Amino acid sequence: MRADLRLAWQLTRGSDRREWWRVGLTAVGAALATGLALAGVALASLDGYVAMPFADGLLDDPRQRAGVVFSLALLLIPVLGFLGQTARIGAVHRDRRLAALRLAGATPWQVRRIAGLEAGLACLLGSALATAVAVPVLLSLWTSPTALAWAGMALVALAVPALGAATAALALRRVVASPLGWVRRVRAARRPGWAFLTAALLLAASAGLALLTPLFDRPHVLSPVPLAVLALTLVVGAAAVLLTGWSSGLLGRTLAARAQRPALLIAAERLRDDPWAAARTHAAVLLVTVIGTGFVGVRQVLLAELHAMSRVDHLGMDMEFYTTGLDLTAAAILVALGLVLSALAVGTAESLATRRRGLAAQHAAGVPRGVLARALFLETALPLAPAVAVAGAGGMAIGAWYASLTREYVVHVVPYVSLLAPLAVYACCLLAAATSLPLLHRSVRPAELRYA
Amino acid sequence: MSNTEGSTVPLLAARDLVKAHGRTEALHGASVELREGEILAVTGASGSGKSTLLHCLAGIVRPDTGSVTYAGERLDRLPEKRLSELRRTEFGVVFQFGQLIPELTALDNAALPLLLAGVRRQEARERAGEWLERFGVRGQGELRPGEMSGGQAQRAALARALVTGPKVVFADEPTGALDSLASEQVMTALTHTARESGTAVLLITHDAQVAAYADREVRLADGTVAPLEVAA
Amino acid sequence: MIGMSTRHILLGLLATGPSHGYDLKRRHDERFPQARPLAYGQVYTTLQRLVRDGLAEVDGTDSDGGPERTTYRSTEDGARELAEWAGQIAPPAPFVTNEIFAKVVVSILSGGDAEAYLRAQRAAHMARMRELTAVKTARGTDLATVLSADYALNHLDADLRWMTTTAARLTTLTAEVDAG
Asked: What residue intervals traverse the membrane (chain A) (predicted)?
């Protein structure tokens, strides 16, 4: 283990700038994950009714607290997506290096341990930083935290690096199985595996179950089955991923046959070559689109209803109680969107960096930089358009369904405003993809043509 | 050598080129001339500045000092946009590898310069097909570069370099990754086509057998042109 | 084609049937295009020796309207000898007689410019390689010509590589030769 640790450290220290980016961003992702998990654990460790000095009483009641904890847990999804993207930075180089280690005689477990240690140490750094911030914050808010809270927080601080290491080791299974293949740069278009399909089916089943359970009968405004909404959201998200993979393949084939413009041709052929690359990158975007669109719809309906209720004095709490809840949710969704967009930008930049030698050769051969930039941009924009449209429609359906449930105080309206959400997400995604374009300028330098 | 042959005004001329990459000076006062329709080999040890010389002559990089003149125009002073245009219309480029887009078929790769020039896809593919035919890889037209042998991919790359009817083809170690038979096929295809169409070729190589396909040789040593024979 | 036996080549050409001296020379030059052309006198003396050693014999004479010409054919001993020779491997350069290396050393010993000599030799080699390549790549060239040109090209290339590395190490060599 000591030898492995030393080797992992040496390899990381000797690696190039992109690998440091991976380590750094992995640490940031781990810090976010730890922070969210710590907040969740601290809230979950509270028992019964507690008078909180902040958040307009939203955290006082155990039932609403459970909702907040649940939202925090959901926020982990985009964080994980972000971590998944950062793991790809310099991944080709790292995988080849580890494959070379395998060929040099390292055992499969040694290689797994080395990769696990690399990722684990980065996650440990992030988790330590997040814990170092969280503990004083907690102490300032809560004079004597319970032993349960402490235990939970310690568990989180240790679990994040451990999970990071385990995931990294697991992700290496292809390199471990056939090191030669990776050295030779054999690349196969990966379809979503059975794990993804199983998860999607399970979610669909749980959504169905949740819909059938008699939780509906509760009179509270804020209790229309968050679980059902969220499971439904996840199912729509999963469908959007499958649809992206399928549609980007179709789009690639169709456009590649008809394209007249070189940029479109290049982008279409790339999509045809690996349609699931787009699907993997865009999974989290689509999920956020569903949630965001759904939320905008629910919020509109809910606010209308709350105002109507407050007019007839039927509100159980202050108006602020509800608006704070909605604002917090909105903030959470915006954080998720930010994460997803960063992941998208990181993914685009990484895809560009991996291909910089080829791009430099194209530029040297007279392909204008504008054409290369448009091809890169279209690669993101093309497959995302139908997927975001479907995800938006899904979110819209959630909002409309919610509106149809709550017609006690207000007339039934379809929340059309939520249609703006997918448009906004799409625009943000294009902007995020565009942030990597300045990198193209640096990538097509003739220095990249030199044979390494 | 045969300085009296051919036209007197060179098509492409570099004078006293100096170019540094960071702290290492790749070119140190190199001068070279390429006449119309001439096949010129640039040889020299690795690190002698061959590739940098090609990059300067093809307008891919600007020299720090010195001049590059193509058909009376100073390449080192042209704006990037015009250089890019020049590279895809008047010049053709072949590298050791990497000049084909991996996701495009051989036919689409060869047609790309025409598409960039605004030719319709169908016509571009037909014309590219004729070039693939000339280089004996028509049958591989629907394959992607990764699915072809190294020699076939290089011949497809030649088709792409020549499809616009360039005045100069720049070839940087075009046979560097090939075995001797494939190398012979690529070089024969290149020199035959260039001679028939009157295209000048600047050929970078460290292999004397490849350099022997050229009409003339320029030898680089330490970033400058080394004398080939006893100093006159 | 250093060290190649003219005897055996002529025996080989005779293996296809009786032939006279001029015909043998013509066929040799055709078959081995990049080799040094055979002199007619050499063909004649070699044939005489083959007859003397019982490997070939006179088949007859014909005139074909021109001067009288003697036709030769291979004997059974000749066929055996030929088969034996063709099956033997060529000794892989047992003694290198390297004129270029000798000239470099002599030039250092006599205070001449070894570098200039190597440069001139290199240019001459390159010029010959260009000639051979032009022959080889001319349209309609037969494979025998291509292959024999390739043989010569590869040998010249080997010389060239040797000259390049030697030129790069001349200083050390000069020190060594001068010290000895």
From this structure: 20-46, 66-87, 119-142, 148-172, 193-216, 228-251, 283-302, 322-347, 384-404, 416-440
- Name chain C contacts of B192, Cβ cutoff 8 Å: 137, 139
pLDDT value, residue B199? 95
- The answer to whether B68 faces chain A, any CB pair under 8 Å, is no
CATH number at residue C55: 1.10.10.10
% of residues, chain A, pLDDT over 70: 76
Which positions in chain C have a beta carbon within 8 angstroms of at least one beta carbon in chain B? 116, 119-120, 122-123, 125-126, 129-130, 132-133, 137, 139, 153-154, 156-157, 160-161, 164, 168
How many other CB atoms are there within 10 angstroms of residue C31's CB atom? 13
What is the count of structural domains for chain A?
A: 2
The reply to whether A351 and A202 lie within a common domain is yes
Three-class SS of C125-164: HHHHHHHHHHHHHCCCCCHHHHHHHHHHHHHHHHHHHHHH
pLDDT reading at A230 higher than 50: yes
Q: Which residue has the tokens 């995988």?
A: A95
Token pair, residue C51, equals 């007859």
B181 Cα to chain A: minimum distance (Å): 23
Model confidence, pTM: 0.77
Q: Do A272 and A246 contact (CB within 8 A), yes or no?
A: no
Q: How many domains does one find in chain C? A: 2
Tell me the C-alpha distance between A110 and A306, whole Å.
Answer: 60
Residue C134 included in any domain: yes
Are residue A287 and residue A407 in the same domain, yes or no?
Answer: yes
Within a 10 A sphere around the Cβ of C92, how many other Cβ atoms? 5
Answer whether residue A186 is part of any domain: no
Q: Does A372 touch chain B (CB under 8 A)?
A: no
Structural element, H or E, at residue A74: helix A62-86
The pLDDT-based confidence of A316 (bands split at 50, 70, 90) is low
Question: Range of A130's domain?
Answer: 1-173
**A366 closest CB neighbour out of B21, B84, B115:** B84
A391 within 8 A of A237, measured Cβ to Cβ: yes
Q: Tokens for B158?
A: 């030649």
B73-127, pLDDT tens digit by residue? 999 999 988 888 888 889 999 988 778 998 899 999 999 999 998 899 999 999 9
Q: What pLDDT score was predicted for residue B131?
A: 94
Q: Per DSSP, what are the bridge partners of residue B224?
A: B221
CB A98 within 8 A of CB A115: yes
Domain boundary among C87, C111, C127: C87
Is it the case that residue A433 has pLDDT exceeding 90? Answer: no
Residue B198, pLDDT score: 93
Q: Which residue among A105, A138, A173 closes a domain?
A: A173
Q: Which domains occur in chain B, in start order?
A: 12-225 (3.40.50.300)
Taking an 8 Å cut-off on Cβ atoms, the answer to whether C126 and B208 are in contact is yes
A334 part of a folded domain: yes
List of long-range contacts for A144-152, beta carbons under 8 Å, 24+ apart? A145/A42, A145/A45, A146/A45, A148/A45, A149/A41, A149/A42, A149/A45, A152/A41, A152/A42, A152/A44, A152/A45
3-state SS class at C56: strand
Q: How does DSSP classify residue A417?
A: G
Sign of CA dihedral B201, B204, B207, B208: positive
Average of pLDDT values for A216-237? 55
* CB-CB contact of B14 with B67 (8 Å): yes
Q: Does A361 touch chain B (CB under 8 A)?
A: yes
| Angstrom distances, CA of residue C147 to CA of A145, B55, C152 | 89, 36, 9
DSSP strand pairing (B12-21 vs B91-94): unpaired
- In this complex, do B209 and C139 lie within 8 Å of one another by their Cβ atoms? no
Of A143, A173, A203, the domain-final residue: A173
Contacts of C115 by beta carbon, 8 Å cutoff, 6+ apart: C167, C170
Identify the domain containing residue C32 by its residue range: 6-87
